Amino acid sequence: MEKSPITTTSRKARLLSLDALRGFDMFWIIGGNQLIIFLAALQGLAWLQPVADQMRHVSWEGFHFYDLIFPLFMFISGVAIPFAITSKVEKGVSKNSLLLKIIKRGLVLVVFGIIYNGALQHGFEDARYASVLGQIGIAYVLAAVIVLFNRSMMMQGLWLAVILGFIALLQLVVPVPGYGAGNFDRVMSINAWLDQLLLPGRLIGGTYDNEGILNVISASSVTLSGALAGAILRSKKWSPNQKTLIIGISGLILAGVALLLSPFYPIIKNMWTVPFNLLTAGLSALLLSLFYFLIDDL
């Protein structure tokens, strides 16, 4: 039986590899890591323990596989931006209307994050205002607005460099009162100081918050990296094989730069340091190139 033109077209229009990668990420988010940890604890499966160790977050500095899962989700949300926003701009949809929708989506996630943290049950005075949902929402708004008003990939890349450079400048050079510059810990870092100074309510880490002010801005670079990857996938300038190579090689370069920087600029998820962003964006790009090659490129 021949496939209808409508069915064939709709399948080609949807990026199945992105759906598959999103499903891969959701598997770990909903508890895939706990399954591995449980299996490793069973008698006779002790050989799984090194794998199980990768299914837990590092306590501070360093990197495990499970530290990739949240940034991968943010990267994936960025990949979808050109398909959801740039395509509408090309069809003549008003940028102001799209901007309003972007901001509404971000605000909804921020509000849901505050509610999820228990503000309605425990009151707003001691509420935790930072949240995973809030970080996703704000980072999405920042990346989406950049894409909305800068359709050129070169300009988007420049904005990415500006964000990373801004974070690096703050974390490496700007001194924290009483402690100095270039500190990477829970008390003396610029992240902790800004959270205590500007973030109302309760901080989950006491002196800092995992999804604090500087973390959110920094994390937007991962979402924007995803948007650049999405722009490559959407482009008609390159063949599927070329897209796979461009995204894959870019991922290798980003991860390599992160490892080169790590001896003096550590990889710390709780601070979203620039090497952490580069490493997770690079690994996410490698995964995207692999899924795209296996599903959409073949």
Short overview:
With 298 residues, this protein is an all-alpha fold. The protein has helices at 5-13, 16-41, 49-53, 69-90, 95-116, 119-122, 132-149, 153-172, 190-198, 213-234, 240-261, 274-297.
What letter string, H or E per element, gives the SSE order?
HHHHHHHHHHHH
The proportion of residues forming helix, as a percent range, comes to 55-70%
Count of separate DSSP helical elements = 12
Strand count, sense and barrel status of the largest sheet are: none
| Quaternary state of the chains | single chain
The beta-strand count equals 0
Q: How many structural domains are formed by the residues?
A: 1
Poorly predicted ranges (pLDDT <50, ≥5 residues)? 1-12
Choose one word for the global shape: globular
Description:
The protein has 12 helices and no strands. With 298 residues, the chain is mainly α. The chain has one domain. The longest helix is centred in the first third of the chain and has 26 residues. The chain is globular and about 50 Å long.
Features:
68% helix
List the helices and strands and how they pair.
Elements (H helix, E strand, L loop, with lengths): L4 H9 L2 H26 L7 H5 L15 H22 L4 H22 L2 H4 L9 H18 L3 H20 L17 H9 L14 H22 L5 H22 L12 H24 L1
